[in-house]
Amino acid sequence: MSMTIPGWLVRGGTSAAFKDLGDESDQAGLKLIAKSLGKVRVLVAKEGVVPTKAIKDLIISAKGNKYEEYVTVRDNGKIVNVMVKQDKDIVKNLLVLASSDDEFVIAHIDSNLSMDQLQKAQISWNDERNKNKN
Amino acid sequence: MKHYITLFIVAFMAMAATAQNNAIDKFFEDYQDDENFSMVYVSPKAFRMVSKVAEGTEGEMKELQEVIKDLKALRILRTEVNSLAKYKEATKRINTGSYEILLQARDDGQKIQFLTKDSGNVIEELLLLVGGEEEFIMLSFVGKLDLDKIANLAAKLDIDGAEHLSKLKEK
Predict the structure, then answer these.
(1) Which residues make Cβ contacts (< 8 Å) with residue B96, sequence separation at least 6?
(2) Closest by Cβ to B53, choosing from A73, A74, A119
(3) Residue of B nearest to A69 (CA)
(4) Cβ atoms within 10 Å of B15's Cβ, excluding its own
(5) Rounded to whole angstroms, how far apart are CA atoms B154 and A106?
(6) A69–chain B Cβ distance below 8 A for any pair
(7) CA-to-CA distance for A80 and A82, rounded, in angstroms?
(8) Which residues form the domain of B85?
(9) Best of A33, A60, A72 to disrupt the B interface by mutation (most B CBs within 10 Å)?
(10) pTM of the predicted protein model
(11) What total of structural domains would you count in chain B?
């Protein structure tokens, strides 16, 4: 199964979705991030459809296209790779690969998310939480 | 002449240090794709991003930021297959003599070693080796390390093997 969600729908849809997601403190930070998101593409394949070698080749190819490995975790047959393409302090693309015995998922997100925005989102999130506590 | 000899010695020491780091890197490379191993790798960029995002925050995020702001990389390898043999292989391949032993312990048949590499008063690498009949763990933190903060971080990490880091507080 594959799905492509255009950026305008991601940005518009998340506002509606966040109304029912968590409380105001959760929404504050998430809205800041959502504004910077672009096209989202997701591919889900059942076991055996994508050979392990193909996944490894994809990672090598991504590295050749300036994606940098951020986090890799492998445990009990499950593997998660998070790769990011950055332009200085701006996250331009996020690539997440998750594979297990049952399925393989690849998610690719276009964005224009700066570290400052992530920081503001985090601070906004914390400020709202502290406000709610008081 | 004396200047050239000094340069030669410094270059040799740098090569020896590089070779040592390469031994650890090589060990990780050899087993990071081995399905018998669990593996965690967190890159310098990931630490930098989290540290940047956590700047100016308070509470738990601030505490986390204090710990990770000087970290460069984290690598963990763990296996339950031939664990004692893997431990012996690791101690043989990695010249643990070039590290300072911070803590050694034996607990329920497991051998635990904390090794550090210093530069002046700064700890630049913390290497944890755990080996026994049940599991082998190699954990490497690279960066400017504060051992107390690393031990506190252990409580927040839900990663197999990281619980041994809390023993640093016992030192």
Answers:
(1) B113, B115, B129
(2) A119
(3) B43
(4) 11
(5) 30
(6) yes
(7) 7
(8) 2-170
(9) A72
(10) 0.78
(11) 1
